[in-house]
């Protein structure tokens, strides 16, 4: 039995004090309770994408607008603070050594095989040393807390948008990497300690959003939100946005408004389309055959998005009947599209070439996004009826 150690506090100014304020008494005594609280609200993938989009507020003229906006951000920030607090306890070994016992090489390999990890890669160092090094790089727990305070301001106020005179593009990538690394490590520890099955059953129960990119309303009515997108942008415009985004890879520039305004907006729109298509694909075949699910009642909001002179080319679909389209929709690897689009954007803002060793993966990503767009457009075209 591991003897519990008292948590030593230093009498210093509170702003600089390292102490796990975000944990209550029960969580201090049993940190796995805090991990359960976090990962029963947000899956690992949710955390990864929300961190990415939160960081991205620095580079575009938007507030945090994912899930339910600022409410989601506030809730999510509190959960990240809890994870960092648990990491601090493990680093200081306050009775937390038992949490690392189950985190052996076999468990790690299983975790890697079943989860997408951006920065948590196998090394010769122990898990404890990786945590210690990460805290040292960010100057302790309060260093991480200060990062979150700074990011909060970026997410809620347009005045903090960087227009090129405050810092260089990508200067906050190290902070992003360290935060993401800590989230991935904590999720690994959580699953290694017998919580894997519990997470599988509960990780989708996010009371603030349907997913990282969809609010609860958008998740309940994916057809309506898809139609909003197709009414805001012409089909050919959406494909042109993709082409422009692809060609920014060579110059790490272009489409620049507020440094990454347009590029970030395009990426977010397609992340949203990926999630909308995924939600739509979860319905059974009878759903697509029932016209009532595709009737748009709001005449002023939705108009006829098809005209005879459009005739957009479809490069990826040999058939256009509904059964074929539904089968294609259900066969798309949505997680892979999310991950590759996420890594492509890292390529654009960071010095590292994420796709250097596999350039064809970039082409596959954009072909996959075009195919997704074609499938959604044709399903909407064949199904949606607007009341005039």
Structure in a nutshell:
The protein is mostly helical and 388 residues long.
Structure write-up:
With 388 residues, the chain is an all-alpha fold. The chain folds into two domains: 14-202, no CATH class; 216-386, no CATH class. 59% of the residues lie in helices and 1% in strands. The chain has helices at 25-29, 32-39, 44-56, 70-92, 105-114, 127-137, 140-156, 173-202, 216-220, 222-232, 235-251, 261-281, 285-289, 322-331, 334-349, 359-383; strands at residues 295-296, 385-386. Helix 2 (32-39) runs antiparallel to helix 4 (70-92). The longest helix is centred in the middle third of the chain and has 30 residues, at 173-202. The protein starts with 24 loop residues before the first helix and ends with a strand.
Indicate the topology:
Elements: H1 25-29, H2 32-39, H3 44-56, H4 70-92, H5 105-114, H6 127-137, H7 140-156, H8 173-202, H9 216-220, H10 222-232, H11 235-251, H12 261-281, H13 285-289, E1 295-296, H14 322-331, H15 334-349, H16 359-383, E2 385-386
Parallel strand pairs: 1-2
């Amino acid at each position: 039995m591991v003897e519990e150690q008292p948590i030593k506090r230093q009498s210093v100014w509170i702003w600089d004090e390292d102490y796990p304020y975000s944990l209550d008494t029960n969580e201090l005594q049993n940190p796995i309770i805090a991990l359960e609280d976090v990962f029963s609200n947000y899956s690992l993938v949710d955390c990864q994408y929300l961190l990415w989009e939160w960081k991205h507020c620095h580079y575009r003229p938007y507030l945090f607008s994912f899930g339910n906006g600022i409410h989601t951000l506030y809730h999510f920030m509190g959960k990240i603070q809890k994870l960092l607090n648990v990491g601090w306890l493990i680093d200081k070994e306050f009775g937390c050594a038992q949490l690392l016992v189950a985190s052996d090489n076999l468990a790690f390999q299983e975790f890697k095989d079943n989860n997408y990890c951006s920065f948590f890669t196998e090394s010769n160092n122990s898990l404890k040393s990786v945590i210690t090094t990460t805290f040292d790089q960010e100057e302790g727990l309060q260093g991480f807390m200060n990062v979150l305070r700074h990011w909060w301001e970026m997410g809620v106020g347009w005045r903090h948008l960087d227009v090129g005179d405050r810092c260089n593009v990508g200067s906050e990538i190290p902070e992003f990497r360290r935060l993401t690394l800590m989230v991935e490590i904590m999720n690994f520890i959580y699953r290694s300690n017998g919580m894997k099955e519990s997470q599988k059953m509960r990780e989708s129960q996010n009371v603030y959003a349907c997913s990282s990119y969809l609010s609860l309303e958008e998740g309940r009515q994916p057809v309506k939100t898809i139609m909003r997108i197709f009414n805001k942008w012409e089909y050919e415009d959406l494909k042109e946005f993709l082409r422009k985004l692809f060609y920014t890879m060579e110059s790490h520039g272009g489409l620049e408004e507020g440094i990454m305004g347009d590029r970030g907006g395009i990426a977010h729109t397609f992340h949203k389309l990926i999630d909308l298509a995924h939600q739509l694909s979860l319905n059974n075949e009878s759903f697509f055959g029932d016209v009532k699910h595709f009737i748009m009642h709001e005449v002023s909001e939705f108009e006829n998005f098809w005209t005879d002179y459009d005739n957009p080319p479809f490069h990826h679909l040999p058939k256009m009947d509904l059964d074929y389209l539904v089968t294609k929709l259900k066969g798309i690897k949505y997680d892979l599209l999310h991950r590759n689009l996420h890594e492509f954007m890292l390529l654009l803002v960071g010095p590292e070439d994420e796709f250097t060793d596999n350039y064809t993966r970039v082409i596959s990503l954009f072909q996959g996004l075009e195919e997704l767009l074609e499938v959604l457009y044709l399903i909407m075209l064949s199904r949606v009826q607007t009341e005039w």
